[in-house]
Write the structure tokens for this entry.
Amino acid sequence: MKETLNIIKVGGPVVEEESSLQSLLMSFSRIRGNKILVHGGGKIATALADRLGIETQMISGRRITSAEMLKVVTMVYGGLVNKNVVARLQALGVNAVGLTGADMNLILSVKRPAELVNFGFVGDVKYVNVKALEHLIAAGAVPVLAPLTHDKEGNMLNTNADTIASSVAQAMASRFDVTLTFCSSTPGVLRDMSDPSSVIPVITKNDFEALVGSGVISEGMIPKLQNAFDAIAAGVSKVVITSPSALSGGTSVQANPESDD
Amino acid sequence: MKETLNIIKVGGPVVEEESSLQSLLMSFSRIRGNKILVHGGGKIATALADRLGIETQMISGRRITSAEMLKVVTMVYGGLVNKNVVARLQALGVNAVGLTGADMNLILSVKRPAELVNFGFVGDVKYVNVKALEHLIAAGAVPVLAPLTHDKEGNMLNTNADTIASSVAQAMASRFDVTLTFCSSTPGVLRDMSDPSSVIPVITKNDFEALVGSGVISEGMIPKLQNAFDAIAAGVSKVVITSPSALSGGTSVQANPESDD
């Protein structure tokens, strides 16, 4: 039987607020067994860029990453956010090690071709180094992954944190029984955005299509759930969308009962 | 017989200039066997602080690290410089992993007490995690260390890169035959600062005292050499001061021939 592995992805808004960050780190420290934390930090990057007079441009929720913006995200994601999370986890007794995709060649990507939109220094994941992550985990370390990859040609690249979490979960599923948890500021997928108690406990692929059709699921939640179904199809045992305080409950994303996915 | 371990410390001026950085990384990539790179980055931190309107204050060559400055050095040392060095070493076929003292609790420090001078968030090294570094090296990884430590209470601390290199070298000497190389913009300790060919090939402790007495060795070179003699006294096999292009030649720092150091 495979060992379990919990991969928790925590977005910018959770990392950026002191109370939600502390709540997340406490919950994370209590998870037993193998675990990986993947974090964002977009709002802090935008704030630093502002102070430096570098304009932030987003297209479909994705950051256009100029050479100057690449420096900003390398500093904020790889340095400020990553190392503060690591230091705080160490204080909670978690043997955290903060890493980007360049470290130990953990996540190799290719610069996204400039087609309709030129996203700049943005990387699409090509390869996850399962052996290196396995080795760190076997040594008792808890990887804390920043949303940065590299191209093996000497360049760092900016990569969406949801994509990092999903790619790592899919690759690690060959060796572990993986649960992937997306931790956001809402307690799960809501039937009514204005009512935090309207969490939909289970969503299958069929449900998803119906809920998108009826407009209950919209905007940013669509790619997040698509990502979740891709992960399930690629062998991830369970995908959960929940809030940082519990890291339990929330919405469980599942394949259709009759599906071969 | 102990395995060899080369620890190379590369200062700010070398990291900050494209040509000397590339030269250093090429030389470093050609070193066979176990190796660790320790880097600085002070000038880049000062430049970023300037752009953010944060004043840089130095006392005896050491940075006063306010809460705001701690964010700057965490971004620059732990993010920008560290990850760019790692990505470029990966491109040169070196399996680099960029780390601070917080990662895997590699280097634990205590905040320097505010006595004559309040240095702020500056850490004095208390402990180097030899086992964790050994483990990484055994896995074929090449640690790239940023000059940052932590206090195990959730705080990052700023720590001088020479001190990091020297502390790591001393601790690792229990398990490895360690050569510690300080790589600076001069080709070694010079008899005449204006003549790069006047490198003093060997300096013993007695020579050092005489050269300080006669004024040949002065200013920043005094603590650097003191550091080197401390390392030798603590079991480091060899300390070298040289330039980045060769990582050989330069000045070899040695105990007195008759000494028990």
